[in-house]
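Re: adenosine-5'-triphosphate structure - here you go.
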Amino acid sequence: MDYKNILKLISENLYCGIFIVDKNGKVLFYNQSINDLAGLKVENAVGKHVLDIFPRLTEETSTIMKTLKTGEGLKNYVQKYYNYQNKLVTILSSTIPFYENGVLEGVLEIFYDVERYNSLDHNKKRKEFTGKAVYTLNDIIGSSKEIKDLKSKILKTANSNSPVLIYGETGTGKELVVQCLHNESHRHNKPFIAQNCAAIPGTLFESILFGTTLGSFTGARDSKGLIEAANGGTLFLDEINSMDITLQAKLLRFLQEGHIRRLGENKTHDVDVRVVAALNENPYDAIAKGNLRNDLFYRLNAISFNLKPLRENKSDIVELSIHFLNYFNDELNKSVVGFSDEVLDFMKNYNWPGNVRELRHLIEHAINITENNLIKEKDLPDYLYMDKEKNNHLNENIEAGLDNQFSSKPLSEQLNLFERNIIIKTLKKYDYNISKAAKKLCIPRQSLYYKMDKLNIKLDKSAE
Ligand SMILES: Nc1ncnc2c1ncn2[C@@H]1O[C@H](COP(=O)(O)OP(=O)(O)OP(=O)(O)O)[C@@H](O)[C@H]1O
Ligand SMILES: [Mg+2]
């Protein structure tokens, strides 16, 4: 029996990230789950240094680097950070050093996404039908034409029984709209059941949706599915594009016929449920990728809401910001009065990949850490600062980039050269003062030292 293959199989099928580095911090192994789990982009990570893969971490903040330094493991360590999709991720990690003949050989880190597990737990609760819709129309903030139209469309369509399709990027308010649709309708005293289609595997999902009857498969009991449980109310199917394509056909049949048949049962049950489905990409893209059935799309699309990204609806940013400012002042017992001009400018110019949710997190973060009564640039989360600087550097150095564009060297070598040039120029500008240069580059001092070492930059002019 080949244990290596078995270990590979296990690591690929565990829903947790596994990361192994050698004693120098170079990656020896990682499993695929890392990509989707922590929202990392680690293509061909093997051989790279851990701080190259997690550019936002430093020798001090990286659990792996800490363990390499101290030789001591860290058990069940909770870490919060913004991943590359700008989603706030909470991970629980254990970092374990491994030794050979008493000498530290490297570090193994195992971690999982806490919210993902919580949401599975949440779904367990929802299976017991405790889902609740809390938002009403007043919770939708904004005075732009977009928001006004959105509110009036919710009011106009809330009492219809036609299915609804809501699409928009992450954080644009899809859940908010679904809850409003329910609460503004005659169904508001009836169940509201939300189910994320990505959380449950296809085979199981069919029984969860349609219910089972005694003996339909081993261990099955007589039990209602989500559709029956939502009778009289609303069933919200989030991330519908993750639903198995054959199950989508069965959902379509229910939408057309208005009754369901539990798994293993012959008789049908009439149900009156309003189905609202959401997806976080354009439905036509989902259809093209084969993740959404054409016919289901046309049925769901009877009423549709296309929620605009925040960057296309900038006129609401100030109003939303003030709303969240008041909210978190109350919540955190603070009395911050507003934002500096730079912060307001920044908020208007930023492209908000995480949309309203990102804005909300940003203000929560700033109110937590500010020591003034005005939110200033330094109160913004680090990741924003870095993105901003990155853009500036790109503009400043566009010429340097163009110089390199016809080089026949491999891309990685050109990028190293490019990075080396920027670092040398910055060091020169600040008279080789590491702290000032690191600040200008918006990277921690340790990272600058590390990069200088890697790119062979010496602290004197011989490097030029
Ligand atoms: N117009 C708005 N007014 C007030 N709050 C908003 C608005 N739009 C979004 N939000 C808030 O932003 C956060 C994210 O919204 P929501 O959870 O509805 O997004 P979503 O589209 O379902 O995102 P995802 O695709 O990631 O699930 C919530 O806290 C929500 O209350
Ligand atoms: Mg959502």
